[in-house]
Each structure stands twice: as C-alpha cells, then as structure tokens.
Amino acid sequence: MKKTGLFLLTASLPFALAACGSDESGPSIESQPLSDDDSELEEAAWYDELGYTSFEMEVEYEYGEYDVSYDYNNGDPQAEISDSRGDEEREVEDEEALLELGQVLPDLDVTPQSNELQLMNESVNNFQLDDNYQEMQIDVEFDEAEAIQAEDSTQG
C-alpha cells in the first residue's frame, strides 16, 4: 500500500508543478518592471558619449588635495575620487565615482584643440573648485588624437 501511494505521489508531482507554472493570473518574468540596478546602468552610459578616454586631475591646496581619475578602459570604465580638503578624507571608487563624475565630465567642454588655460578653466568651473590652489595638473587622453596636458603652480 505504501509503495502504491508513493508511486501515485511521484507520478502526479510533475503535473501539479506544471499546473502551478501555467497560472495566467500571476505576473510572468517578462512583465516585471526593471529593477533600480538596471536603470542605474542605463543612466551611467554617459561615458560612451565622451570625446575623451581618460581624465586625470590632481589639485593641491594648502588645506588638502582633490584628485580625480577616470579611464574608459574599452567600455569598462573605472573611476576614483579622493578629496582631503574638508574635515574628513573622502575616497569614492567604482560605480559611486562613475555616478558622481557623470554629473561633471559630460559637461566638460574639452577637445584635442583645447589649450592649457581652457582645460584648467573648464575643470575649475565644472568641478566647482576653489581657484586658490597651489598646484594643478590635468591630463586628458583622446582615442584618435594626441593627449593634452595642463599644469599650473601658484602661490594661493
């Protein structure tokens, strides 16, 4: 008797599971909305439209430093931001840094024809930096053109 019951249970299990999966009233996988992670990836596509592949900036102040590093890396972008100008040192990397730089780098009007002064002014304005720095170095690399560099040392 136990064997017959076990056989019937085993034989009917696939049909019961199939019936659960064919319920048309519940949401299917295809009808579920995108998660927040998917929308963040779509928003982060700003780096595919930049006219340059690398942006490095180091700014030294009497009271700290501000450093930005961005590299397109053949469609696998990497970014870092380091800021020791305030009361606390701040380090931001990966997705968080890309999201933050996505608010600045697309608006940076930099081309291979930009001169040092234009590059520094664009960077100070777009990153909202104090212009009383002691030293600033910027390197921008382009895919199909020569890199441009700017360096300035002042007495802030």
Automatic annotation (TrEMBL):
<keyword id="KW-0732">Signal</keyword>
<feature type="signal peptide">
    <location>
        <begin position="1"/>
        <end position="18"/>
    </location>
</feature>
<protein>
    <submittedName>
        <fullName>YusW-like protein</fullName>
    </submittedName>
</protein>
<dbReference type="InterPro" id="IPR025623">
    <property type="entry name" value="YusW"/>
</dbReference>
<dbReference type="Pfam" id="PF14039">
    <property type="entry name" value="YusW"/>
</dbReference>
